[in-house]
Amino acid sequence: MKGFAETPGELCPDCEAGPGRENACVGAGTPYEMWHTPDCPQWTIMQIGWEAGSRQSKEQDAWARDLFPAAHECLKQAAAALPSHTPAQLFDDALTELVQAQADTTGFVVLHRWAEILERHFPPPTAGPRAHHRVSAARRSRPNVVRPRRRPRSEAGAGGSARVRPRRR
């Protein structure tokens, strides 16, 4: 029992309903809509599933609202206990800020907010000397940033070349 059409014009095998005032439409506005009468078994099963899903979602939200403040506090305490100026501190700072952003909203943290936070803690590599100059400046001002080691010029090659040139003696 699916309750929805997989092909255009498909009728419900239980009630064989069509458009009507008293009938319910699943998938309205799509080519795969299916109509059901109020007493159709498939329609009843679909409604029970929706109500159960809604109830479960409300229960999960209530559980999370009760648990989140305590878990958030534990995260802050654990973050405060970490030694500073370590590579783990970068991840901890980002995670703590993301969790705080979630605590400050009633829904989900939106994608652009995630991007702002992650870019602040983990700036993307620069494409050229002036690309992301504001991020680079912000990163230089943070004392606990671990920067990757640069390869010696003999390994990197002159002018960004991939091949290694022998030294002249």
Number of DSSP-assigned strands: 2
Helix and strand succession? EEHHHHH
- Please give the count of helices: 5
Termini separation comes to 82 Å
Percent range of helical residues: 40-55%
Report the biggest beta sheet as strand number plus sense, adding barrel if it closes. 2 strands, antiparallel
Strand proportion, as a percent range, falls in under 5%
Report strand order across the widest sheet: 1-2
Sheet/helix structural class: mainly alpha
Biased composition (Basic residues): 130-152
Region (Disordered): 121-169
SSE layout:
Blueprint: E1 24-26, E2 34-36, H1 41-81, H2 87-103, H3 111-121, H4 133-141, H5 153-156
Antiparallel strand pairs: 1-2
Helix pairs in contact: 1-2, 2-3
Please name the defining characteristics of this protein.
169 residues, two-stranded antiparallel ribbon, elongated, 2 strands
